[in-house]
Design brief:
The structure holds 3 protein chains of 3 kinds. By secondary structure, chain B is of the alpha+beta class. Chain B is 28% helix and 15% strand. In chain B, a hairpin with a 2-residue loop joins strand 1 and strand 2. In chain B, helix 2 packs across helix 5. Chain B is globular. Chain B starts with 19 loop residues before the first strand and ends with a helix. By secondary structure, chain C is α+β, with helices and mostly antiparallel strands. Chain C folds into 3 domains: 61 residues, 2-Layer Sandwich (Uridine Diphospho-n-acetylenolpyruvylglucosamine Reductase, domain 2); 116 residues, Uridine Diphospho-n-acetylenolpyruvylglucosamine Reductase, domain 3 (2-Layer Sandwich); 111 residues, CO dehydrogenase flavoprotein, C-terminal domain (Enolase-like, domain 1), CATH 3.30.390.50. Chain C has a 5-stranded antiparallel β-sheet with strand order 5-6-11-7-8. A 4-stranded antiparallel β-sheet of chain C has the order 12-13-14-15. In chain C, strands 2-4-3 form a 3-stranded parallel β-sheet, with helices on one face. In chain C, helix 9 runs antiparallel to helix 10. Classes of the chains: A alpha+beta, B alpha+beta, C alpha+beta. At the A-B interface, helix 1 and helix 17 of A face helix 2, helix 3, helix 4 and helix 5 of B. Strand 6 of chain A pairs antiparallel with strand 1 of chain C, so a sheet runs across the interface. The structure holds flavin-adenine dinucleotide and FE2/S2 (inorganic) cluster (2 copies). Flavin-adenine dinucleotide sits at the interface of chains C and B.
């Protein structure tokens, strides 16, 4: 095994000092002279025709500079109008409760909010539909006017799949669907010794980043330059979209991805376009910061999902057939993760026969966006619960049954794509070896309560996108690394490690900056667990480029051949000869100083998409259930995850723990609740309950390393998988504890008591 | 009437747009600002005093991102009217490091990988500080209780709890 | 149908208002009297500011009590009881030795409210005056038969805490009245009390159901006196009178407590909302009342 000096070590975050002292700049911290504050009037109806909007009174309110409605907006090409981001303000029809219909711009936020109340908007309510199953019925009212062609530019940033959704041609709320099949499911069920069939529901939930959406945009009408400071996971994506939308050349747009207060798939492109349009209309800087309620009501949460699943197993534990219908509720605009859901539900185990149908349905709820591993936790709840139920029925060990059927390199996914090297079995093994699993039958429960242990697995295919990076040698021998990817998971720290490793310099000699879209080399959005996997490869290539340039200079200086040179401890020598050597620092001098003979060393790395590296996880949960109140307490949690190679085990463990905790949230608390009019009723963080420090246990991490074929040092993406199996693991643990199965997440005390027949 | 509250001679008749003058000792420094009384301490500290370390995650006391220590007590500054803190001693995240040196909590947060996106961190560190100031050797449960009003979406809390425990040693 | 609606969603900024910081109760009362119905008292602000930010409450004047020192603090009364100033912070109530020892349920109620931060701002007077059916100190104060001291334009008066509530968020306080303190009568020997609430999260949550009980045992170990108060299951907190009467004079047992739980269920009129259905709430009352009685009994016997 190769030994490394810097990669593979737990290195604290390079930007940590700024963050612990309060000195990092987040988008809402940006304040510009003459800045206007923008507040949005949101629709009180889930589906209505806008009859009129009278802004006279509001416009006259002290402090108000301008009120903008759909009439004032530029027109966009029809083919983009299926994309929520292009529907800045509703014009004729509002299609979800909370949809913006007018923007007030005022000198202070209070004045802007006061003016909202003075706007007189008249609506004519239209029939609305909220549940996907209702929306699919033939007699269902259309959730909205037909969408036209579906623009899926954003979802491609999260996962790369070769299959496209089929769009429906007849008017229907079902806007796209996917089908996969393999073998003969009827025959498969016929030879099964147990067949389980259930319907699983998981709720609409919010990504839950603690920083609400925020953008400050500034337009200079003379130079026609647009500058945008924004909380986004993909600054280049924002630039490209705005360029396409407003027909401004990309050279005129500077998007500065500020420090990001969490994204989890939810902060890609939402407020930027409106802020850009508003600053162009007013020629003044515009600040658009969501309140928490704005963010819960009107951002882009993760959708609700209904899964009908039938699975079979033989007495010996072999899986036989899987038949499923997966229904995603997209809300009012298309964009649900249909294909990935369809692949994953049949993609963990070697089902010889499968029939998978997945579709997305429009309703009058807020349209959905991505989440960490979009679509995956919903289908995983179904398949991973049923794996347990079948094992239980056959009195087999649930872990053995998974091990026996788990996919490996070379196996086909339902889409017929073939897995490269993957570590699902290794993750299961790690969980099998954990204390939590080993003493699952030994620990006594608190009197009056029951204890249970459950496991579940999850996987994510990973995204791909080309990326570039620069590495430059400074005059003092330190190195600047410039990337264009927004650091959301500690990637900049890992990039520093990669450069330090490749050039054999101490880590503190390397400085990584995320440039803006005018200064940095291109990078895709930081989503889909691909930043380290793609940009990391570019950084490595750029460092290698620096190395070869330096060796060239050294060879010339030392009058030797490059092959004769030895690179050690910051010194390059001819075969170790101290007489014939040059220090790294000297090389820096002779490539940058006055009259230097050699050109500056500027390494360039540019890579294109190649093979994905799917990442798997297995998790184990120990719970205690109060049989009388239905309360579930999480006692212990272990997560194994295949990182390929953990360039920074500290960051990797952090990703695992953070995602696992979101999975716990999905399992027990998180659910966006709507009234019969489709209005969100828990639009604050007291009632939209994310786990607090008291709700979750210490999380043990077991990093598994099955090298990927293509990632830097064998690394694979680690951001997504951790969130996926939480709900299933908790559900399995609950059944282990009290023998009752709850088929709808979150597993609230009320649902548990109902399943137990107590209420 | 406390005298510091208003700038007008006859405060009882103050018009709705009347400003008040407030004085804070913030991170050891005396500051005085004139503000409309409907501003929260968080807004004034961020927008007027330009100390933007404290964050607004919810504005309604539910997330803890805006936490500050006022007269020795940890509070959520989004729910404190700026004039209510008049005359108070306030510590924000900017005042935790002393003499150019990180506070042990800050160092432990970095070293333990307890910092991810960083948005919750100013509030978390102040919650940790308020705890350690009154209880130098807290148990894990006490640490979790002390930070239960501070939501973190990135870390799952494990490393934060470890960092605070390490700072207590 | 055409409708004309103006809606604003949860704006995080407050409207403009006049601000006052009196230093005495008298001054506060006269300010309130002068400014009439548009004026609001401000204690810790953890309810009022939230309402001003997101529930459309827009007072024209805010009278802050933070500089009224006489409203703060806990003191022993000559009759063996306790007096808690209205502006006493929840954390101070929860940590107070006498409260923890003799009025355990109140310490529990004050101790579970919100977060450390909330309890460092929230006051007991604000919790009661805000009159949420879920207020965590209301059931404990009620089982101890606490009285509120009220100062107003016409002088001072006292009123049992439970009589302060007239509906969700509304009280029987008159315009310009200020709660100055709560008086808790002395607690007889062999008394135990408890407060328990159900919340989905372990903390940072509002009670789906809250139950407080107080039991005083007679010398023979039977129940001399019982008080049960339920939170979040009716428009105001309510005493479960029938359950209380069924306990008095009886020998404590699991069956007795279970049947008291059933009687308590019957006293409630819960609604379904974002925190739980009516059915679920009613079910919980039974379990929680029984459990709470068990805890209080243990404490009374200790
Ligand atoms: C994050 C969070 C969590 C919370 N969790 C809980 C919880 O778990 N349980 C719970 O019960 N509550 C909870 N609350 C609500 C709130 O904290 C409590 O009700 C608190 O006790 C209110 O006290 P305050 O001093 O902040 O009141 P304020 O907001 O200052 O005032 C509340 C109301 O009472 C009036 N008032 C205040 N003092 C007096 C007085 N002396 N005389 C007459 N009227 C007066 C005010 O005019 C106002 O109408 C929570 C709030 C937040 C923000
Ligand atoms: S911003 Fe103050 S608690 Fe969330
Ligand atoms: S580090 Fe991101 S919310 Fe805590």
């Amino acid at each position: 095994m190769t030994t490394y000096t810097t990669v593979g070590k737990p290195i604290p975050r390079v930007e940590g000092t700024h963050k612990v002292t309060g000195n990092s700049t987040y988008a809402a911290d940006v304040q510009l002279p003459g800045m206007l504050h923008c507040k949005l009037l949101r629709s009180p109806y889930a589906h209505a025709k806008i009859v009129s909007i009278d802004t006279t009174k509001a416009a006259a309110h002290a402090g108000v500079e301008r009120i903008v409605t759909a009439d004032d907006l530029p027109e966009f090409e029809a083919r983009y109008m299926s994309n929520r981001a292009y529907n800045l303000l509703a014009g004729e029809e509002v299609v979800f409760h909370g949809q913006p219909v007018a923007a007030v711009l005022a000198t202070d936020a209070t004045a802007a909010e006061e003016a909202l109340e003075l706007i007189d908007a008249v609506y004519e309510e239209l029939p609305a539909v909220f549940d996907p199953l209702d929306a699919m019925r033939d007699d269902a009212p259309p959730a909205r006017a037909p969408v036209g062609e579906i623009d899926r530019s954003e979802s491609k940033g999260h996962v790369t799949v070769e299959v496209e959704e089929e769009q429906s041609d007849k008017p229907s709320n079902v806007v796209s669907q996917t089908k996969f099949s393999r073998g003969d499911v009827e025959a498969g069920f016929a030879e099964s010794d147990v067949v389980v069939e259930r319907t699983w529901r998981s709720a609409m939930m919010h990504q839950g980043y603690i920083e609400p959406h925020a953008t400050v945009a500034s337009y200079d009408p003379i130079s026609e330059e647009l500058t945008i400071w924004t909380a986004t996971q993909g600054q280049f994506f924002v630039r490209d979209q705005i360029s396409r939308m407003l027909r401004i050349p990309e050279t005129k747009i500077r998007v500065i991805g500020t420090e990001l207060g969490g994204g989890f798939g939810g902060k890609i492109f939402l407020t930027q376009s409106l802020a850009a349009v508003l600053t162009r209309i007013t020629s003044r800087p515009v600040k658009l910061v969501f309140s928490r309620s704005d963010d819960l009501v009107g951002a882009n949460p993760a959708g609700q999902c209904v899964v009908d699943l039938k699975t079979g197993m033989k007495n010996d534990g072999t899986v036989t057939a899987l038949q499923t219908k997966v229904i995603y509720n997209s809300g009012a605009y298309p964009g649900a993760p249909v294909v990935i859901g369809a692949i994953l539900i049949g993609g963990y185990y070697k089902f010889p026969n499968l029939e998978i149908e997945a579709c997305e349905v429009l309703t009058n709820k807020v349209s959905v966006g991505a989440i960490r591993a979009p679509g995956a936790h919903n289908v995983t709840l179904a398949i991973e619960s049923q794996m347990d139920m079948m094992a239980r029925e056959l009195e087999r060990d649930p872990l053995d049954v998974r091990m026996q059927n788990a996919v490996e390199a070379g196996d086909e996914m339902p889409s017929k794509a073939v897995y490269s090297s993957i570590g699902l079995k290794e993750c299961l093994k790690a969980v099998q070896d954990s204390e939590i699993w080993r003493d699952r039958n030994e620990r006594p429960a608190t009197p009056g309560k029951r204890r249970g242990v459950g496991i579940a697995v999850g996987g994510w295919l990973g995204g791909l996108q080309p990326a570039g990076a620069h590495v430059e040698l400074n005059g003092d021998g330190t190195l600047n690394v410039i990337v264009g990817s927004n650091d959301i998971t500690g990637t900049n720290t890992s990039f520093a490690q990669i450069v330090a490793e490749e050039l054999a310099v101490p880590l503190d000699m390397v400085n990584v900056v995320t440039g803006d879209t005018k200064t940095a080399p291109f990078a895709g959005m930081s989503a889909g667990s691909k930043t380290l996997f793609t940009v990391g490869r570019a950084v490595k290539a750029a460092a290698e480029d620096v190395r070869s340039q330096l060796l060239g200079v050294a060879a010339e200086r030392l009058q030797a051949k490059v092959e004769e040179l030895e690179w050690k401890d910051g010194v390059i020598s001819v075969g170790g000869d101290a007489e014939k050597s040059i220090k790294f620092r000297q090389l820096a001098g002779i490539t940058t100083g006055f009259g230097a003979q050699y050109p500056p060393v500027i390494g360039r790395g540019a890579i294109s998409a190649r093979q994905q590296a799917p990442g798997f996880t297995a998790q184990v949960a120990e719970v205690e259930v109060d049989e009388e109140t239905g309360e579930v307490t999480l006692l212990r949690w272990g997560i194994a995850q295949d990182a390929g190679f953990a360039i920074n085990p500290l960051s990797v463990a952090g990703q695992m723990q953070g995602g696992a905790t979101q999975g716990m949230g999905i399992a027990l608390w998180e659910e966006m609740l709507h009234d019969e009019g489709g209005r969100l009723i828990n639009d604050g963080l007291l009632d939209y309950r994310m786990p607090t420090a008291l709700d979750v246990p210490n999380i043990e991490t077991y990093i598994v390393e099955v090298p990927s074929e293509d990632g830097p040092y064998g690394a694979r993406g680690v951001g997504e998988p951790s969130i996926i199996p939480g709900a299933a693991a908790v559900g399995n643990a609950i059944e282990d504890a009290i023998g009752v199965r709850v088929a709808e997440a979150p597993f609230t005390p009320e649902r548990i008591l109902r399943a137990m027949g107590k209420i | 009437m406390t005298t510091a509250e208003t700038t007008t001679e006859t405060p009882r008749e103050a018009s709705a747009l009347e400003k008040v003058t407030v004085r804070y000792t913030i991170n050891g420094e005396q500051r005085e600002v004139e503000i409309a009384p409907n501003r929260t301490l968080l807004e004034v500290v961020r927008d007027e005093l330009r100390l933007t370390g404290a964050k607004e995650g919810c504005g309604t006391g539910d997330c803890g991102a805006c936490s500050m220590i006022v007269d020795g007590k940890l509070i959520t500054s989004c729910l404190m009217l700026a004039p209510q803190a008049d005359g108070s001693e306030i510590t924000t995240i900017e005042g935790v490091a002393q003499d150019g040196k990180l506070h042990p909590l800050q160092q432990q947060f970095i070293d333990h990988g307890a910092v991810q996106c960083g948005f919750c961190i100013p509030g978390m560190i102040l919650a940790g500080k308020a705890l350690l100031d009154s209880n130098p050797a807290p148990s894990e449960l006490e640490i979790r209780e002390a930070i239960a009003g501070n939501l973190c979406r990135c870390t799952g809390y494990t490393k934060i709890v470890e960092a605070i425990a390490a700072a207590a040693d | 149908m055409r409708v004309r609606i103006r809606v604003r969603y949860n704006a995080p900024h407050m409207r403009r208002f006049d601000y006052f910081a009196p230093t005495s109760v008298e001054e506060a009362v006269s300010l309130l009297q002068e400014r009439g119905d548009g004026a609001r008292l401000l204690a810790g602000g953890t309810d009022l500011l939230v309402q001003m930010k997101e529930a459309g409450v827009h007072p024209s004047a805010v009278v802050s009590l933070h500089a009224v020192d006489e409203l703060r603090g806990i003191s022993d009364e000559s009759d063996g009881g306790l007096r808690i100033g209205a502006r006493t912070l929840m954390n101070d109530v929860a940590a107070h030795e006498t409260v923890r020892g003799a009025y355990t349920a109140l310490a529990e109620g004050a101790g579970v409210l919100g977060s450390t931060q909330t309890r460092n701002m929230a006051t007991i007077g604000g919790n009661i005056a805000n009159a949420a059916p879920s207020a965590d100190t209301a059931p404990p104060l009620a089982v101890f038969d606490a009285e509120a001291e009220i100062a107003g334009p016409g002088g001072t008066r006292t009123l049992p805490v439970i009589e302060l509530f007239s509906g969700p968020g509304s009280t029987t306080l008159e315009t310009a009245e200020v709660i100055t303190a709560f008086r808790l009568p002395a607690v007889p020997d062999h008394t135990g009390s408890a407060y328990q609430r159900h919340t989905p999260r372990k903390t940072m949550d509002i009670a789906t159901v809250g139950v407080s009980v107080k039991l005083t045992l007679a010398d023979d170990g039977s129940i001399g006196d019982a008080a049960i108060c339920l939170g979040a299951v009716a428009p105001t907190v309510i005493r479960a009178g029938e359950a209380e009467r069924a306990l008095a004079g009886e020998t404590p047992s699991d069956e007795l407590f279970a049947s008291a739980g059933e009687l308590a269920q019957a006293a409630a009129s819960p609604i379904s909302d974002v925190r739980g259905s009516a059915e679920f709430r009613r079910y919980l009352i039974g379990v929680m009342t029984r459990r709470c009685l068990g805890i209080a009994l243990e404490r009374a016997q200790a």
